[in-house]
Design brief:
By secondary structure, the protein is α/β, with parallel strands linked by helices. Helix content is 30%, strand content 14%. The chain has six helices and seven strands, in the order H-H-E-E-E-H-E-H-E-H-E-E-H. A five-stranded mixed β-sheet has the order 5-4-3-6-7. Strands 1-2 form a two-stranded antiparallel ribbon. Strand 1 and strand 2 form a beta hairpin. The relative contact order is 0.12.
Length: 244
Amino acid sequence: MGMPDADGPGPGEGLPGLPPEWGRVVVPDDASALAEEAERIRRELRRRAARARLRARLGLPPRPNGRPPLGLPLVVLLVAVLATVAGLFAVTWSRPPRTAERPTVVPHPTPATDLAGRPLPALELVDAENTAVSLRALLPAVIVLVDACACPERVAEAAALAPAGVTVVTVAGGRRVDPTAASVGPPVRALADPAGGLRAFLRLPPRPGTATAVLVDRGGTVLRVVPELRSAEDYRADLPRLAA
């Protein structure tokens, strides 16, 4: 580990960019794996220094050393240690700080309060006999979506306040109309929206216990959207505009 290999570097192994004569240099994951080699090199350096001092005291010339110089192993060792430390620092630095876990909040779709003035799409719904009915053919209309709440009191209020010529349309989900609304009679027209096209246009998912009202004039323009219908007072002021 860490010393040159005479066989040369294998593909995808060792440190890139080093001279080929150094052989394969493998950087361990833990710098402590190089401790044994480092201690061996330090012992060799101490022995050489001791011999050199002894020969100097005796007045002998420096003894030639036939062993390979230690400069290359020291450089390899230094490169390996630096690469290991740099890798550990990069991993530690890039790790985000721990924070208290917070639950992911998924926002509800934005209510379609910006649809006023836009044309109602040409939607086809179905009646109790599963016959296709064009929604635009029933305009002007107060459309009450009852797929999340039958809300018969809201339907009854709309029927009582609707001006002459204005249809009250109840829209249920799936292919089955609301039986309560279907039994009211004119001006209430009970329909169902199997494809969910009206909800998609409004960008309003059904909320349990809540009805939604949409007022559309004779020309097919949306006048008002009431996402949560509480009473007829939410749209009473807009009824004269429907009859115009």
